[in-house]
């Protein structure tokens, strides 16, 4: 089994935060051909809080009679896990307003790497982006983050 390394960026509902939490999901295969998926949840707390997880399957072949075992399946599972972790974080850290925030499902909207470009150039969550680059094993995401780290940051001044 060999997946083309891929990643997706998703924007979550602000849910009482000043900025929008975002989720990056990846799917790829290891050097031995084993499926891997990662998710990175960046929360807009202080300079950014990163929560991350890697999912591994140590099996290279699957009978695909009932479900197609592919990148899409792994990316969707990683996204579901990240949304559950976001809900858990809200329950633990926003206890007074968590019933209001969690009364509905957390909505996520697909985005693309341009969101990562914007937060980098804005100077937001740079530490989180650097940590994601260091922790990820997905070549497509690493290459994109290396490129983003080479971009200039915006100089901001009040008028």
Q: Would you give an account of this structure?
A:
With 159 residues, the protein is of the alpha+beta class. It is built from five helices and five strands. The protein has helices at residues 71-93, 98-101, 113-122, 126-135, 139-149; strands spanning 6-12, 22-29, 35-43, 49-56, 108-110. It is globular and about 60 Å long. The N and C termini lie far apart (56 Å). The model has no long low-confidence stretch (mean pLDDT 88).
Structural topology:
Elements: E1 6-12, E2 22-29, E3 35-43, E4 49-56, H1 71-93, H2 98-101, E5 108-110, H3 113-122, H4 126-135, H5 139-149
Antiparallel strand pairs: 1-2, 1-5, 2-3, 3-4
Helix pairs in contact: 3-5, 4-5
What are the main properties of this structure?
about 160 residues; alpha+beta; about 35% helix; globular
What class do helices, strands and sheet pairing give?
alpha+beta
Strand content is: 15-25%
Biggest beta sheet attributes: 5 strands, antiparallel
Q: Topology as H/E string?
A: EEEEHHEHHH
Helicity level, as a percent range?
25-40%
Q: Stretches where pLDDT falls below 50 for ≥5 residues?
A: none
Task: Report the average pLDDT across residues.
Answer: 88
Number of strands: 5
Distance between the termini: 56 Å
What's the shape?
globular
Side by side, the strands of the main sheet go 4-3-2-1-5
Rg of Cα set: 17 Å
Give the helix tally: 5
Give a brief rundown of this model.
This protein has helices spanning 71-93, 98-101, 113-122, 126-135, 139-149; strands spanning 6-12, 22-29, 35-43, 49-56, 108-110. With 159 residues, the protein is an alpha+beta fold. A hairpin with a 5-residue loop joins strand 3 and strand 4.
């Amino acid at each position: 089994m060999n997946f083309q390394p891929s990643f997706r960026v998703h924007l979550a509902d602000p849910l009482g935060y000043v900025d929008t939490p975002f989720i990056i999901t990846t799917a790829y295969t290891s050097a031995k051909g084993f499926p891997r998926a990662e998710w990175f949840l960046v929360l807009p707390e202080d300079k950014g809080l990163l929560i991350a997880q890697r999912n591994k399957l140590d099996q290279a072949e699957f009978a695909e009679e009932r479900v197609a075992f592919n990148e899409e399946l792994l990316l969707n599972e990683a996204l579901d896990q990240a949304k559950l972790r976001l809900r858990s974080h809200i329950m633990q850290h926003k206890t007074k307003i968590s019933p209001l925030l969690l009364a509905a499902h957390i909505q996520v909207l697909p985005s693309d790497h341009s969101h990562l470009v914007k937060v980098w150039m804005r100077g937001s969550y740079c530490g989180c982006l650097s940590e994601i680059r260091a922790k990820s094993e997905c070549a497509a995401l690493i290459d994109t983050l290396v490129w983003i780290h080479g971009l200039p940051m915006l100089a901001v001044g009040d008028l």
